[in-house]
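Async update (no meeting this week)

Hi team, since we skipped the sync, here's where things stand on the single-chain job. The sequence we agreed to prioritize is pasted below, unchanged from the tracker. I ran it this morning and attached the output directly underneath so nobody has to dig for it. Comments welcome in thread, and please keep replies under the output.
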Amino acid sequence: MKHVDESRSDVRGPPDDIYNICITTNSYPSNAEALLREKKAARDHIARLEATLAMLEAERSRLQGILAKYDIILHPIRHIPSEIMQKIFSSCIDHPDTMILAEHGGATRPFPQTSLNPSQVPWVLGHVCRSWRALVLSMPKIWSSVSLEVRRRVEDSNAKHLTSHSLRLSLQLNRSQDHPLDVSLYLDHTQSFHPWTVLLCSRSHRWRYLRLQGNGPALHLLSQIQYFLPALEILDLNISSNYSKMDIDCFEQAPRLESLFLTTIPSTKLPFAQIKNFRWREDSDQSSYGDKLWPVLRSLSGVEACSLEFVKDPQLYVSSALFNLRYKRLRKLELMSSNSRRVDVQRLLAKFTAPRLTHLIISSKLTEVNALVNFVGRSACKLTNLVIYSAEEVISNNFARILSVLPELTHLEFGFPTTDDHLLVLSTTPVVVPRLETLCIYSYPGFKSSYSDDVWLNTLEFRANEQLISRLRSFQLDRKDFTFTEPLSSRKRLDALIAEGLNFKTVEKLQ
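Output:
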């Protein structure tokens, strides 16, 4: 400001009268010497100001450089406690979870990518800085998820490739220290021996989770891990039918094994009586397992969650003289068909009795509901959660029959071609499912429901009545069905329900 004040004081500019005369005539001012001195002063002040600007710009650049250094030194991530960073790093690793696998048992999960890729986690985390590397090396858990694909490929036959990956696998196992291992192992049909599997099997006493997939004689390698599975809790076997008859008894001595997932019924000796979570998914390329599946199901005396997915019609189980299944501890049962337009798996309920069942999920064609209704009566169970998905419409009378035997139901979810008649079942007296708190309505893929917004709003208003045992608290609707024929009035009614506490969502549940 000092230079500005001086320039304003020293240089005031030519008088207006002289300037006006000079722009209209060629006369030369009489005080030209004084004007020349002021002009020179103006130039001097400009030079001084430009020098000042250059110094200010240089100082600004210097300060910006200092700020950039402070941004690095004082970056918020440096202030994050090591415990938080450990949780962030752990979330980058895909660790199998028993409950998640049980809840999503029907979905075919892709085989995880190899854990030996140096450009992926956890390896890449140690390349950022020294502190991250030290932190990563202090976390055995993030090194405990091992995924290998042992295939007959050109690069796998290269000695240098085998050696480098063997060293990296050994390094990963050493860094995992004594932490339980989650192992995903794919064995190719042409492999009968591989150093990676030998190294991995030497740590079999630390396996917590084992996903074994393949179709080859390499499965014989598992015979060397007999009696060395004290930590195994979850076993996922996806073995080709050509090798399902192989005698594998290494899993028999696994005292902590509680979760078992199969796609075939192998000759493997397994401790079925101690299994709590069981999933079976039928392979469409394999012959019927009617004579093998049922003995396995009968052996699951302590099962608490069971998921069965069929490709073929399970009628042979219903019509045969097979023994009925009574599960005293079963709380969740999932019956599914990958071809829900043709296969009705709910008829299998004629063979089941489960007095403690609370969650039932059915995804199949529903030709009739006698098996379901009779199952509830025979079991005397108190279902609280019911989920039904079907490509075929469930007639409203059958829908009403199902709900009439479920007075304890709190969660109802269905995905089939829905009409006004289905919703009217929920909004008439005498009230069915009086304890209902959550209602989810979805459209089956390729189908669109035909109920009106007035009817489903009437249903919501009816279920929100405080005089019921339980008010409806949550409602989910398929997004593609969420259209108002009368937008203003319908939106107003919905907003009023939301204001009263209804949790309303539109989702895309079924794809």
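Quick observations from my side:
Residues 2-74 form one domain.
The chain has 17 helices and 16 strands.
Reply here if anything looks off.
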